[in-house]
Write a structure and sequence with these properties.
The protein has about 40 residues and is of the alpha+beta class. It is about 25% helix and about 20% strand.
């Protein structure tokens, strides 16, 4: 998942646009068990 945040959303203006790349393995533990079972995660 690739997220792009505009300036001031999650960092100071001087830091510019922020890009965040998350791999599914990093997010897996955040999903409820019911979702994981029904979606073969």
């Amino acid at each position: 998942m690739f997220l792009i945040y505009d300036v001031y959303e999650i960092a100071p203006y001087a830091a510019g646009q922020q890009d965040l790349l998350l791999y599914f393995g990093q997010l897996e533990e955040l999903f409820k068990a019911e979702f994981r079972q029904g979606n073969d995660i």
